[in-house]
Amino acid sequence: MGKIIDPVTNGHAAGKNGQELGIENELKMLECIKIQGWIREHELHLITGMSSYTVGQVSRRLADKNQIYRERFAGNAGYFLRLRAAGAERVDGKSGKDICIPASWPHHALAIQSLHYLAGVNQCDYETEASFRHRHQSGKLPDGRLVSDKVEFNFEQERSRKSGEALQNQSQNIVRLAAGGTICYVAYPYPASICGGINHELRQTNSIMKQLGSAGSENIKLVRCNFDSRLAYQNMHAIKFEVIDLPVMEDTAASVKDQSGFDPQINEFHWEMNPYRESNNQQCIRAILFLDGGICHECTFTEGMAYDDDHWLQSDYLGWDMTPNDKNQPFDDFVREQQKRIENQVKDKLERDIS
Q: Are 82 and 38 in contact (CB under 8 A)?
């Protein structure tokens, strides 16, 4: 369990020599890795209260002793730590040689950063998702929780796009808990323009307000996890956190859908076009359609050659499709027509899902 940590006590002032303090820091780090299973140095610094400098020193020392794995897993995101057999023996743990760092590591890292900040705001302790798992709790695990004997808290960490039934169920649960007196925090990356293009604040606000109706709840709080660059977001290093109240929105339920029934908050299309040429010099474009920051469609456009007048669309969803067209139709026009056709099909599917 992470705690609100006081500044690190000077070893000499505490009556400890450098060797004793070094051993204490090693055991503290090994115990944290044992509970978390794997952890990045940045989040270990938050949980243990050790300075970033000390964490780097101790982790390198333990790696040199072959007591931990200290590896770069995601570019320049920093070092990820797991226990080796020798380190596990010191804290009665298990070797982490078979543990894989999950692709969802940014979600877990940001959850710890958010929890650490909120624990400071509320002067309480916090517990991570991994600590739940360490206690062998089964079923769906929370993203973490704030621990207080005075106030009940609920915590949700958002990062990827959640919509439909999953988002509705989450909002219903938040509204129910808040009505019962629980303080509910929903944390998310911010701003959308830097953090994958997903407007979590708008999506969460709309979804929660649809459940609240004309009522309000001062117990629901939004947490902006601010990033100052795409690189910082990629490496999951938030620069600051801020708690804001749930915005008061008039006629939110009525404004969420336009007259067609389509949800405008998820009508954010973006195409990523990657042109290339086949060995016969045939022009092709590998295209990915992003919907509100998440991949929703992939396809390939192929230009017709002299011996094959028709342009081609190969879609992972639609299959092969040769659309009849004017033999003189420019390839660019064909691509734009097919893009629009695909977008309309995605909209139609979303309309059916919403209804």
A: yes
Strand partners, 187: 157, 223
Say what the pTM is.
0.69
Please say whether the beta carbons of 38 and 103 come within 8 A.
no
SS3 146: strand
DSSP track, 267-296: --EEEEEEEEE-TT--EEEEEEEEETTEEE
Rounded CA gap, 55 and 77, in Å? 15
DSSP assignment of 157-201, as one string?
A: E--S---HHHHHHHHHHHHHHHHTT-EEEEEEEE-TTTTTT--HH
pLDDT at 251: 41
Tokens representing 272? 């990523």
CB 101 within 8 A of CB 73: yes
Helix (H) / strand (E) element for 127: namely: strand 125-128
Q: Give the helix, strand, coil percentages of the chain, each rounded to 5.
A: 40, 25, 40
Mean pLDDT of 265-288: 76
> What is the DSSP track for 36-96?
HSSEEHHHHHHHH---HHHHHHHHHHHHHTTSEEEEE-STTS-EEEEE-HHHHHHTT----
Rounded CA Rg of the chain: 25
Structure tokens at 127: 């517990």
Per-residue pLDDT tens over the stretch 138-165: 667 788 999 999 999 999 999 887 777 8
| 188-197, 216-225, 298-307: range with lowest mean pLDDT | 298-307
* Inter-residue contact 156 to 170 (CB < 8 Å): yes
